[in-house]
Write a structure and sequence with these properties.
This protein has 453 residues and is an alpha/beta fold. The chain is built from 7 helices and 24 strands. It starts with a helix and ends in a 5-residue tail after the last helix. Belongs to the C/M/P thioester hydrolase family.
Length: 453
């Protein structure tokens, strides 16, 4: 019975979304003559900057500019900000500050990185593209009369436009892998190649995440989005991970005819970052690692590779804190990797011949990635290694994704069933994403050969 109730509630929610969209389109007939909104480029990759301009307003007229996106699963996300036109009745979001709403100040891409589920949707969800080749992500941009707060019915629509945000460039191909034990999606740029090869991994939430790999392919990399948990023929828990799986994935990619034979890069976030560090340490095929909000020790289950065994750092559930907001704070639950008692869990990165890029948010509240990066750098330095670089961003949280990826300070954990704190301040996090993305590509190109696209 509870299932039927939930199904009925979900159906009702969808009907509400359809009605709301219809209302938005109906409002557009009540517009102010001569007002227009232009956004460009109208068709672009999702990591490209967008310029939004409004014209035809009255001098100093106050309006609300809003973005609306329908996700792959038909959920609605929106954002809005309040503006005042200049004395010519024009509004340029690259120059004019937001007076209120989802953000304040000059934030040209603010309407995209501040997208959140609308109040009628399930909260604490992050918007991302699940099927990157299933068309673009459509973003509807609307100008509403007067200033309105999020969650309230906005004023009449004065103008609207739509832009397309693509997660794969023209000619990028995807191959679903079942090569031996290896699973995932291989994205290849257009052309004959060979291209620098990169393995891309996310956290221990499991499943397949493609959007970073597809964007890397759009920028000239042969990128393998590599799942390692919670997918067909893959383990369900970290305790069952076999590092040989990652060795096989690296061997497959390096021997692909469209991949350069100079060595691979590994990019990871969270647990994926930790695995990237292990790959550049243990696998000769991997010569560069990007650790985004990672730990320099093995966490969760035991890591075995040939004659090496790294015990997994454990989590202490009793140190979890439920905040007044109903969000779970897990930042203190991981055992301290810097404690001498846990030395055996440390990844011996000082043995690596490759290069490291550590990307950390100084306000990461999922775990202490800034502390871990500092300890990793100290470990490398003490071993006489200078093959690293650190990008440390004040105000950034845990999940530093490609530019304009919607920010979420807390995200619903599918296993725990409650939102988990990831930290960060919206604007600072967004600017960190924009800067880090270019630096990551430069690092990979400089160590794998080739030039930035």
């Amino acid at each position: 019975m509870s299932f039927l109730i939930k199904l009925a509630a979900r159906s009702f929610q969808r009907v509400c979304n359809v009605k709301l969209l219809a209302a938005v389109r109906l409002y557009s007939t009540a517009g102010q003559s001569g007002v227009s909104i232009k956004a460009g480029p109208r068709t672009a990759l999702a990591d490209e900057a967008l310029k939004i301009r409004v014209s035809g307003l009255s001098p100093l007229q106050e309006v609300t500019v809003r973005a609306v996106v329908i996700s792959d699963d038909d959920s609605m996300f929106d954002s809005s900000a309040q503006y005042r036109a200049d004395r010519q009745g024009e509004l340029d979001l690259t120059r004019e500050p937001s007076l209120g709403g989802a953000f304040t100040g000059v934030e040209a891409m603010g309407l995209l990185w501040s997208l959140l589920p609308v109040p009628m949707e399930v909260p604490w969800r992050r918007l991302f593209k699940k099927d990157v080749l299933k068309g673009p992500q459509f973003v509807d941009l609307l100008v509403h009369r007067d200033l309105s707060e999020r969650g309230r019915i906005p004023g009449p629509v004065l103008a609207k436009t739509r832009v397309e945000r693509w997660f794969a460039g023209q000619g990028v191909t995807r191959t679903q892998l079942s090569e031996g034990r290896v699973r995932g999606s291989l994205f290849l740029p257009a052309g004959a190649g060979p291209f620098p090869g990169v393995i891309d991994m996310y956290g221990d939430e499991g499943g397949l995440t493609e959007y970073r790999a597809s964007l890397l392919a759009s920028r000239g990399f042969a990128a393998l989005a590599l799942p390692y948990l919670g997918r067909e023929h893959l383990p369900e828990s970290l305790s069952d991970l076999d590092f040989g799986y990652f060795e096989q994935a690296a061997s497959f990619l390096l021997h692909h005819p469209k991949v350069r034979s100079l060595g691979l890069g590994a990019v990871g976030t969270g647990k994926g970052a930790e695995l990237a560090l292990a790959m550049v340490t243990f696998l000769p095929q991997v010569v560069a690692a990007v650790s985004i909000s990672g730990c320099h020790a093995n966490t969760g289950g035991e890591l075995r590779y040939r004659d090496r065994v790294l015990p997994g750092l454990s989590y202490k559930a009793s140190l979890a804190r439920m905040l007044d907001s109903g969000v779970l704070d897990l930042s203190e639950t991981l055992a301290d990797p810097c404690d001498p008692r846990h030395r055996a869990s440390l990844i011996p990165i000082e043995e690596a011949e490759g290069h490291f890029l550590f990307v950390v948010g100084e306000d990461d509240r999922k775990w202490k990635s800034e502390v871990y990066a500092a300890a990793a750098v100290q470990k490398l330095s003490e071993g006489g290694r200078h093959n690293y670089r650190v990008l440390s961003y004040p105000g950034a949280g845990h999940r530093i994704d490609p530019p304009s990826s919607p920010f979420a300070q807390a995200v619903l954990d599918q296993t725990l069933g409650v939102p988990v704190m990831e930290g960060g301040q919206p604007s600072a996090h967004a600017h960190a994403q924009a800067h880090a993305w270019g630096q990551i590509q430069e690092f990979l190109h400089s160590n794998l050969g080739g030039s930035c696209v």
